[in-house]
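Encode chain A's predicted structure.
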Amino acid sequence: MDKLHRYPAAAEILGIAEQTLREKVSKGEIACIKIGRAVCFSDEILERYVKAHYVPSIYEPKTRRRK
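Encoded structure for chain A:
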């Protein structure tokens, strides 16, 4: 079973403000686990959210040409 994180820890892992995370949960933009009144986030939920918002770079690494 994955470790469960509360709002402060989950927000820190995602690199966003706790209030931003709360807003995303209330809008249904990120999944959560409710245990009684506690709202928690598993490592899997946080990883899925990050992967879903991955934006690849438009720049490709430059390769050196040999003369």
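The first helix runs from residue 7 to 14.
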